[in-house]
Design goal:
Blueprint: H1 14-17, E1 41-42, H2 61-64, H3 69-83, E2 92-96, E3 102-107, H4 110-113, H5 120-132, E4 141-146, H6 150-158, E5 163-168, E6 193-196, H7 200-220
Parallel strand pairs: 1-6, 4-5, 5-6
Antiparallel strand pairs: 2-3, 2-4
Bound molecules: zinc ion.
Zinc ion (ZN) binds near residues 121, 149, 151 and 152.
């Protein structure tokens, strides 16, 4: 585990943005305060499961610990590039099965489809579930260039994914660590392991260039 002081995905404001303290009210009773959650595993880093992870049924833990996240992120980055062709924010995602095989790949198509739910993560999760004829995607790993938003983090939990691997943190909308920690909320009946920071600089610079270009374009108008 990397030193927590160098974790960009652990913003100073998380305590302000986070949920109420446990026991403060009836609604808050049983809630795990954000500060007690385990930070995402930094990459390259721990190859073993953190304590909070629930070993999924149906396959061995060892089989998935050697997945090549870096190569999978390369594929997700290529997908992110494709989003630029139709003016979408460059975010790409791939879904790996338990053996590490890529079983779905897509990118953000929100503008292209005029659909607020057409995030890369939603598209690969839906595609795979349709292909399998089963909404339960136990054993799968979501690899995405940007920290998933609350919608996609929720979908990952609802799909029973084993693991979420992301590149760049999203301090403004992250639902995996930056603002919320949906995949590890102990009130829900499933939790996902989280690995953060895979090829982070490449993922971040792609987004940075896109938004800088857009601001320049706005200025020219
Ligand atoms: Zn999303």
């Amino acid at each position: 585990m990397a030193d927590s002081t160098d974790m960009q995905c652990q913003p100073a404001g998380i305590r302000n943005c986070g949920p109420p303290e446990a026991g403060r009210s009836a609604e808050g009773a049983g809630f795990e305060p954000a500060r007690e959650l385990t930070p995402p595993t930094r990459f390259p880093g721990v190859r073993t499961r953190p304590d909070y992870a629930i070993p999924p049924r149906g396959h061995s833990v060892e089989a998935v610990n050697d997945l090549d996240f870096s190569t999978a992120m390369g594929r997700a980055l290529a997908e992110a590039q494709s989003a630029l062709e139709h003016g979408d924010v460059p975010v790409g995602a791939v879904l790996l099965d338990a053996s590490g095989t890529t079983v779905a790949a897509d990118h953000n198509r929100r503008e292209e489809h005029d659909d607020p739910t057409a995030h890369a993560e939603m598209l690969v999760i839906s595609r795979r579930a349709r292909d399998l004829g089963d909404w339960r995607l136990t054993g799968h790993t979501l690899v995405v260039t940007l920290e998933p938003c609350p919608m996609c983090a929720g979908a990952a939990v609802w799909a029973r994914l084993d693991r979420i691997v992301y590149g760049a943190p999203d301090p403004k909308a992250g639902g995996v660590w930056s603002l919320y920690n949906i995949p590890q909320d102990r009130r829900l009946n499933h939790r996902c392991e989280v690995v953060a920071g895979v090829r982070e600089e490449e993922c971040s610079s792609l987004l940075r260039d896109f938004f800088e270009g857009r601001r320049r374009g706005d200025a020219d108008r």
